[in-house]
């Protein structure tokens, strides 16, 4: 087993009396994208900042490339950080800002190529203060990519981007992953995690409530079947549980295939299942379960 790029063991972070991160564990392997999801104030940014080496843990062990990021600044040469707020000088142009960022990296930076990669080549002479919110996020991303980091921290990277820019950013991140870059991502867009993450964790109130590969996380939660029938229709026995509200039936089941087969066989030729929908648990179902703290495995 190779050494993980990121290893976090029993991490705790306090702000005064408030314990924002309450004992979390996770690992991120080389070339993997790990998504930290969670409710507001769950502790994602605090965790991210600690792994970046910008915050000292109250307790626990954090290792990045096998080193303590708080003590050993040398790992910063290998990391790129996209913060939630870049804090640019508004008077500088996009190109000047990127050149300045490039000068701060220890590896040679292809400034023009990076601006082109984030779709800002045509905006290079525009002053930063004149950029839209989404364009600023793309400039944030460009600065994180300068110096070709081995490990990239993306803190809500596509907030404020229009759908086209968001998709272009996802393609860019996929390209980086294909080249072996490791990524730690936080996002409120569940679709972003569904599309990009190899593994994920959902945080709530400082703890990891759910973690694992996306397929495993979804498979561990009940699928849904929904349809309308006439009031009072007696249903066949199912593995899952059916909830009837008027004419609407909602089944939550651990065995989607079996219950769907049972229902279709039972209905065939005698009952019309109007508005039939059947799907595995979505990340939104899992997330809602975490929020409501009524996870049904
Ligand atoms: N500098 C600080 N001083 C005191 N409390 C803080 C500080 N920064 C964060 N907190 C608190 O710590 C908790 C975790 O905050 P954090 O920003 O890590 O959460 P988050 O999951 O990133 O939230 P969001 O999704 O809303 O950005 C919150 O209750 C927040 O109010």
From TrEMBL:
Keywords: Antibiotic resistance, ATP-binding, Nucleotide-binding, Transport. InterPro entries: AAA+_ATPase (IPR003593), ABC_transporter-like_ATP-bd (IPR003439), ABC_transporter-like_CS (IPR017871), ABC_transporter_ATP-binding (IPR050763), P-loop_NTPase (IPR027417). This is ABC-2 type transport system ATP-binding protein. PROSITE patterns: ABC_TRANSPORTER_1, ABC_TRANSPORTER_2. Belongs to the ABC transporter superfamily. The keyword Nucleotide-binding applies. It is a peripheral membrane protein.
């Amino acid at each position: 087993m190779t050494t993980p790029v990121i290893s976090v063991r029993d991490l705790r972070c306090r702000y005064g009396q408030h314990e924002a991160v309450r004992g979390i564990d996770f690992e991120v392997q080389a070339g993997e994208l790990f998504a930290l999801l969670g409710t507001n104030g769950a502790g994602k940014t605090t965790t991210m900042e600690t792994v970046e080496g910008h915050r000292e843990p109250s307790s626990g062990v954090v290792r990045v490339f096998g080193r303590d990021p708080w003590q050993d600044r040398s790992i910063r040469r290998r990391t790129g950080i996209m913060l939630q707020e870049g804090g640019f000088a508004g008077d500088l142009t996009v190109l000047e800002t990127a050149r300045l960022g490039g000068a701060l990296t220890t590896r040679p930076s292809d400034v023009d190529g990076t601006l082109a990669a984030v779709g800002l080549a045509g905006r290079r002479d525009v002053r930063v203060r004149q950029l839209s919110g989404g364009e600023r996020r793309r400039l944030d991303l460009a600065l994180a990519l300068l110096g070709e980091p081995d490990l990239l921290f993306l803190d809500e990277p596509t907030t404020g981007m229009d759908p086209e820019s968001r998709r272009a950013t996802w393609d860019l991140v996929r390209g980086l992953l294909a080249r072996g870059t490791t990524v730690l991502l936080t996002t409120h867009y569940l679709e972003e995690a569904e599309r990009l993450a190899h593994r994920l964790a959902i945080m709530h109130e400082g703890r990891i409530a759910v973690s694992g590969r996306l397929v495993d996380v979804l498979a561990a939660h009940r699928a849904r079947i929904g349809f309308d029938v006439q009031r009072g229709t007696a249903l066949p026995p199912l593995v899952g549980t059916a909830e009837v509200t008027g004419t609407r039936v909602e089944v939550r089941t651990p065995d989607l295939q079996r219950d769907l087969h049972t229902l279709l066989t039972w209905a065939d030729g005698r009952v019309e299942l109007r508005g039939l929908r059947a799907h595995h648990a979505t990340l939104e179902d899992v997330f809602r379960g975490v929020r409501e703290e009524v996870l049904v495995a």
